[in-house]
Amino acid sequence: MFNITFLKTLNILYIESNENTGKHYFNILKKMITNVVFAKSSSEAIEIFNSSKNIDLVICDTQLSDGKGTELLKELRQKNEDLPFILTTKKYETEDLLNAVKLSVDDFLVKPVNAKDLIFTIEKICHNKFQEKLKEQTSKDLSSMIEIINEVALVTKTNTNDEITFVNDGFINISGYEESELLNRKLSDLRDTNYNPKAIEELYQTINNSQSWEGKDKYFTKEKEEFYVHLNVLPILSSNKTIKEFIWIRFLITEYEQEQKTLKKNVAKNIHQNRRVNNDARDKIDELMKKIAYYQNLDNNFLLEQKRNSKFVSQFNYYEKEIVEREKKLKHINEIANKKIKDIVSLEKVNREKKIKVDEELNALISSVSAKNEEIKKLTKDLDKEKARIKELEEKISIIEST
Which residues pair with 89 in a beta bridge? Predict the structure, then answer.
């Protein structure tokens, strides 16, 4: 799923102030990426960055113990404007996102970040940067090699009609023609068509089939002097793999055919110079041909990368829209919850007031019952006294009747 070999070549600086979160993601990164450096603050990260100077990517949380991740991004951008940077956040903040976009952040991930998504994002960003650097370096290498070839080889370019579209100084000097006399002229006009016709037929069949060809060829100068070359022909393809043009790279050779003829002094001088550098030049041209063959499809690779990037942008826009929708739903839920809380609090207040009133009525009732009980007790005592008096009277009456 992942290019482990590529990931192991990366140097990652990971910044997280939360110790548990930092330890968790640091362990995940170490399983896939060999060189991961951990920092807990902006100041520590800057110190590491300044001392290392070999950081391929920075992963940083938006909220650090000594500042915001966007502030660190701004400071590191001043040191390296192309430094790949990923921001992570636990809470979606529009202000942080806008600042990050202004600072050209490469990606913005919302926690908790899925481990596979994190590794995939790292590989995507670093691979794109690697491809850009590779293309830039390739362009420099090709320019350098073309300069070398121009110095030691006889170079021409032709279109698909065999018409010369470019010719270097080396070929001009050897051929004796002016540049204006060579441009738009058929290359076959300069060649000895009777020299090894089978090889020439094979040459055109091969290059028209989008393949390179190597062999010997024979040409005539403007003064009808003949010279022999070791020839390399390379088809240059367009993005749709059709042939745009051909590059013809030649080195003078010193076989018996060449030695039997005496060229003009300037031709002899160039032969002498090319003899000394021929071996090195042949090695360099072989290397060039390999590299050109490798980079022929580089434009196609970048088109594929652009399509992938377009897909990632679409995904980002989708998730951004999804977050906005969820925020709206959450806001709506919060409004409903707040209304319910207010209703419950209001109801609780009413119930509390009713309870207080009931308690007051109950206390009043208890007081009234207590008073009635006291009256009953008093009446009971009075009744007991009356009963005692009646009993006493009954006893007196009983005594009187008995006498």
Answer: 110
Q: How far is it, in rounded angstroms, from Cα 7 to Cα 381? A: 104
CA distance linking residue 271 with residue 277, whole number of Å: 10
Q: Where along the chain do its domains lie?
A: 4-138, 153-296, 313-403
CATH of domain 4-138: 3.40.50.2300
Helix, strand, coil percentages for the chain (3-state, nearest 5) = 65, 15, 20
Residue 156: Cβ within 10 Å count: 23
Distance CA 32, CA 189 (A): 60
Say which residue the tokens 């399983």 belong to: 31
Q: Give 256's pLDDT tier (boundaries 50, 70, 90).
A: very low
Q: What is the mean pLDDT of residues 159-178?
A: 93
* Residue, of 65 and 403, whose pLDDT is higher: 65
Q: Which residue has the higher pLDDT, 307 or 246?
A: 246
Spatial separation of the C-alpha atoms in residues 330 and 326, rounded to whole Å: 6
Q: Do domains 4-138 and 153-296 have the same CATH topology?
A: no
The mean pLDDT of the chain is 80
- From the number of C-beta atoms within 10 Å of its C-beta (0-12, 13-18, 19+), residue 340 rates as exposed
Mean pLDDT of 299-326: 64
3-state DSSP call for residue 2? Answer: coil
Contact 72, 55 (CB under 8 A): no
DSSP string, 45-84: HHHHHHHH---SEEEEESEETTEEHHHHHHHHHHH-TT--
Question: What is the CATH architecture of 153-296?
Answer: 2-Layer Sandwich (3.30)
Residue 229: strand pairing partners: 217, 252
CA-based nearest residue to 258, from 239, 244, 278, 280 = 278
d(Cα 185, Cα 182) in Å, to the nearest integer?
5
Number of Cβ within a 10 Å radius of residue 264: 14
- DSSP per residue, 219-264: EE-TTS-EEEEEEEEEEEE-TTS-EEEEEEEEEE--SHHHHTS---
Q: Do the bridges between strand 63-64 and strand 107-110 make them parallel or antiparallel, or are there none, so unpaired?
A: unpaired
